[in-house]
Amino acid sequence: MNDACKISLVICTYNRATYLPEALESIRLQTAPKAVFELVIVDNNSTDNTAAISQAFIANNPDLQITYVFETNKGLSFARNRGIREARSPIISYVDDDAILSEDYILALLDFFKQHKNAVGAGGKVIPKYETGVAPKWMSRYLNGFVGYHDFGNTIQPYTDAMKYPPGCNMTYTKEILLKAGGFNNDLKFRSDDKYMFHKISALSRAIFYVPKAWLYHYIDGKRLLFSNFKNLFLKTGNEEKIRSRSEGGSWAVLKKAFEFLFKFGASLLIYLFFLLKGQELKGRYVVYSQWYTLLGFFKKEVFVR
């Protein structure tokens, strides 16, 4: 490892060989000097040709510092924890295997941490890039989380309750704070691990900031927008939120979360009426769907995995 290396980019990937090459290419095209960053590819037990794509990328880019590892324990948190162990830099940035980084992404993060020496974390702007070129007709701001949309303007600012937390597809923390927080929760296999980590780290330090210049595109393929996937994703969200709540606060936290989801479902019915009056019934219907399936997932016993 070059002593000048300051940041580790970690891509956790599972059977996304179709999209991984473009994500890797956006890393190759970074304007930051290659000596200041490394790439860690965590293959989370893929059965497609992810390994071959990764090895070819390594062979074709000998000037990049790249580590490829195969994590046999399936689940996003297992993969992200493996990323912590493999990363050799003081800053770890997690980006998705379908993320396309802006060319100054790494420079923006390094500049931020240089200027904010007390900072322990950062979340960047995320812009959905739809395969069709346009958002679906049912899309609304209430469903931003479904496509990872994350935009709070162009000013660096600390995260507030209204801003929630850094999204998993563009999430950066110091390695030191990740270790102090105990790493990611391996019981969370698919979702909510970014929320879990934010809560754990926030208990140690609130110096977590929104950094708009560290922006990227999040590729949204047609399959992701199918109703079957929409439904399954929110079922998984509800199920994993139950696991996260229990791990953070026991039975009382689970009960509190249940009431929160019931309230949100009721609120979604009011939002439906709002859209209906505007002649946008489809948008309102999908908001109700999102809360209904989240609620169902919360009360299901089985744990959803990828």
Describe this structure in words.
With 306 residues, the chain is an alpha/beta fold. Helix content is 43%, strand content 19%. It is built from nine helices and nine strands. It has helices spanning 20-28, 50-60, 76-86, 105-115, 144-147, 175-180, 193-202, 227-277, 281-299; strands spanning 7-13, 37-43, 65-70, 91-96, 99-101, 121-130, 157-158, 170-174, 208-220. Strands 1, 2, 3, 4, 5, 6, 7, 8 and 9 form a nine-stranded mixed sheet that branches. Strand 1 (7-13), helix 1 (20-28) and strand 2 form a beta-alpha-beta unit. Helix 8 crosses helix 9. It is globular. It starts with 6 loop residues before the first strand and ends in a 7-residue tail after the last helix.
Mean pLDDT: 93
Following the backbone from N to C, one meets helices and strands in this order, namely EHEHEHEEHEHEEHHEHH
Content-based structural category: alpha/beta
Query: Globular, elongated, flat, extended or rod-shaped: what is the shape?
Result: globular
Write down the Rg: 19 Å
Percent of residues in helices comes to: 40-55%
Major sheet details: 9 strands, mixed
Poorly predicted sequence stretches spanning 5 or more consecutive residues: none
The number of distinct helices, counting runs of at least 4 residues, comes to 9
Oligomeric state of the chains in view: single chain
Strand content: 15-25%
Rounded to the nearest angstrom, the distance between the terminal CA atoms is 33 Å
Q: Report the strand count.
A: 9
